[in-house]
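Dear colleague,

Following up on Tuesday's group meeting, I ran the structure prediction for the two-component complex that the binding team flagged. I've pasted the input sequences exactly as they went in, so you can double-check that nothing got truncated or mislabelled along the way. The structure tokens for the whole assembly follow below. Feel free to forward this to whoever is handling the docking comparison.

Inputs:
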Amino acid sequence: VREDTDQAILAATRELVVEQGVRKLTVEAVAKRSGVAKTTIYRRYRSKNDLALAVLLRMVEEVVQVPDLGDTRAELTAFVGNTVRILGSTLMGRVMQGLSSYVSTDPELAVPFREKVVGRRLAEVERLVGLGIKRGDLPPGTDAALVHEMLFGPVYYRLLLSGQPLNEQLAGRIVDAALDGLAA
Amino acid sequence: VREDTDQAILAATRELVVEQGVRKLTVEAVAKRSGVAKTTIYRRYRSKNDLALAVLLRMVEEVVQVPDLGDTRAELTAFVGNTVRILGSTLMGRVMQGLSSYVSTDPELAVPFREKVVGRRLAEVERLVGLGIKRGDLPPGTDAALVHEMLFGPVYYRLLLSGQPLNEQLAGRIVDAALDGLAA
């Protein structure tokens, strides 16, 4: 039953974020939509931003590991492409936009976000870079943390700042530029 | 006098953002601190976020053009380094963190921000890339918009998402990776 209640709370949050974004979300509205008492929601979630983060973290859990494609460029492109697609065409982009000011200024949101979103993504890049070095696709000593920032930074720059589109070609262009260099 | 009033409003906003961040800023507090009536402030600024954006835009105007250093790598490193320094050690970083959710979701903030911050930065990268192509530092046809995203995306990824430090070495590492390529 506890899990059912949580499902109802998060489903309602998801719907409301789709309809009006994180900024206009209220715990009041989540209570009304889910049929769960406000006091019950507040026992589990500190604020509406906590609720939005919980929705975001559930979506991240569904993001699969990149399969072995035998080629590091293809694997990195698949990984970045997956993020571009999710941020560009699902609720996750809107949630990220609405939460970015909070994950950067509120430690109670920053800590779980960095651990479960940024940290997990870095771990997957580390795995792919390790594989790439073994295969000879990347030089020994390639800095996975830098690769991670060079590949995902431009995606979030579009989502949060420039407003440029998150389209299908983007991942390939970023990965090619990062691997081959712009001065080459 | 009109200009004096504006100076007072923006100085108070700046001080309050330094003390407590954009999230806790209120027009009420700006009125109290500046001695300017709330109604007068609202005649000029739609909201507290509008005030924070005005502070941000004033700071951007102070960011100087990159001088001719005779070498594109040095020029790009100086440009990115300047942004890293400003975001990492002045009020501007905090204002950007506090505003990122709004510039990505509220058109009334997105339009001036993209024009005056993102657009201006892109124009300067275009100028530097043009110079670099002329000098032979960059291949003809180098995509300045992509250079812009590859260089500044990782900086904002740190500021807004990963929380990794904006330190002195960062600009050089990003520019080297972007120009030379990670697979080189």
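Chain A has a mean pLDDT of 92.

Cheers,
M.
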